[in-house]
């Protein structure tokens, strides 16, 4: 890998203030990309991370507060990126809402919250960005093993991620030759972020302590860097012949 394989490329990373998004932003900056981090009102640390990316790697990094449920957010993000850079080369649709409910307890409000953030937001972000694409743009959508495996309490979440994988294939067809773009998904399983460790029920954590021993790649839970390495590759020129794919990013927990 070239030390600065993404030098002078301009990347948007949604939900980039923490967890998987922060890991992706860090890896893109290491490879030379300028980074716009989006974060929602409840997140902290986005500005500190942007400062760190600039100080450590010499890239241009800045933040935009934009919630996934806000219909104006995609245009707000794109306008900020274009004003700063003039064009957009990479979009990482990482932001997501994960709370869900049993089917018997599902409400319209919760359904709309999950689908707005996990599906509408990334679709319309790409739509807003297309007039400002640079050369050979790269789009990576963050799906989940639950798009294919399902699970209790995840009706809205699983639906949103399965739909995102479907939209990825549509984008690959519509944007490919027109813009020279590639569009791919990655599908992580559980990742050892602060939210996973802090917010997951202890019984679920105990269950995963058993399950992770069977993960083919290694008997452990993923780290944000595990996911970031795959996303960064899909953001590079070397991934040019992969598009419309969902790429295994879960150590073999869910084969695709």
From TrEMBL:
GO MF entries: oxidoreductase activity, acting on the CH-OH group of donors, NAD or NADP as acceptor; quinone binding
Name the Pfam families on file. Answer: adh_short_C2
Please indicate if the UniProt record lists NADP as a keyword.
yes
UniProt KW Secreted keyword: no
Keywords, sorted A to Z:
NADP, Oxidoreductase
Domain Ketoreductase residues, every copy: 9-176
Q: Which InterPro entries match?
A: KR_dom, NAD(P)-bd_dom_sf, Sc_DH/Rdtase_CS, SDR_fam
- Biological process (GO) annotations? fatty acid biosynthetic process
Q: Which SMART domains match?
A: PKS_KR
The UniProt similarity line reads: Belongs to the short-chain dehydrogenases/reductases (SDR) family.
PANTHER family tied to this protein: CHAIN OXIDOREDUCTASE_DEHYDROGENASE, PUTATIVE-RELATED (PTHR42760:SF76), SHORT-CHAIN DEHYDROGENASES/REDUCTASES FAMILY MEMBER (PTHR42760)
The protein here is known as: Gluconate 5-dehydrogenase
The organism of origin for this protein: Ophiostoma piceae (strain UAMH 11346) (Sap stain fungus)
The top of its lineage is: Eukaryota, Fungi, Dikarya, Ascomycota, Pezizomycotina
């Amino acid at each position: 890998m070239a030390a600065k394989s993404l030098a002078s490329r301009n990347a948007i990373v949604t939900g980039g203030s923490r967890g998987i998004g922060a890991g992706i932003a860090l890896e893109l900056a290491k490879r030379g990309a300028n980074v716009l981090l989006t974060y929602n009102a409840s997140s902290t640390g986005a500005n500190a991370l942007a400062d760190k990316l600039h100080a450590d790697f010499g890239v241009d990094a800045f933040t935009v507060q934009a919630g996934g449920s806000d219909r104006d957010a995609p245009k707000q993000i794109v306008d900020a990126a274009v004003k700063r850079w003039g064009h957009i080369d990479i979009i990482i649709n990482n932001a997501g809402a994960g709370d869900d409910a049993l089917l018997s307890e599902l409400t319209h409000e919760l359904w709309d919250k999950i689908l707005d953030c996990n599906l509408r937001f990334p679709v319309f972000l790409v739509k807003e960005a297309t007039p400002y694409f640079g050369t050979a743009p790269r789009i990576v959508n963050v799906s989940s093993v639950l798009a294919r495996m399902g699970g209790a309490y995840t009706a809205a979440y699983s639906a949103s991620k399965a739909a995102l994988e479907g939209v990825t294939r549509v984008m690959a067809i519509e944007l490919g030759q027109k813009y020279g773009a590639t569009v791919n998904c990655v599908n992580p399983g559980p990742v050892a972020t602060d939210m996973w460790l802090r917010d997951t029920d202890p019984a679920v954590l105990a269950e995963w302590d058993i399950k992770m021993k069977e993960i083919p790649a290694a008997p452990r839970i993923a780290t944000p860097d595990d996911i970031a390495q795959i996303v960064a590759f899909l953001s590079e020129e070397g991934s040019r012949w992969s598009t419309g794919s969902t790429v295994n990013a879960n150590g073999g927990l869910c084969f695709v």
